[in-house]
Amino acid sequence: MDTQRKKGVLDVCVLSVLKRGPSYGYMIIGEVSQCIAISESTLYPILKRLESAGFVTTYKQEYNGRTRKYYEITETGIGKINEFLGEWEEMKQIYNFVEKNSQEGKS
């Protein structure tokens, strides 16, 4: 997959995990990895970018004697998911168009 396209998709995948509730890095990786490969070195810059854009907020909470950083989606982040879903409908139409035209005229 094209790097830029994958970057945008990963952003929305992370946001969709957080829409179910606050989570932390390791758990987010486990969830997102079910549909697309992601590593810690990829996730944390995404989370930082999403936080800078106002799509997520963070807070720290102690867990088993350690401080864990949690990420929580904002209303703006939910809007980003909805925007993606709207664009996806258009992308499906484009995909269908390309697929149909690439098969016509084949011998």
Automatic annotation (TrEMBL):
Record-linked Pfam families: PadR (PF03551)
Top-level taxon in the UniProt lineage: Bacteria
Transcription regulator PadR N-terminal domain location: 14-78
Protein name: PadR family transcriptional regulator
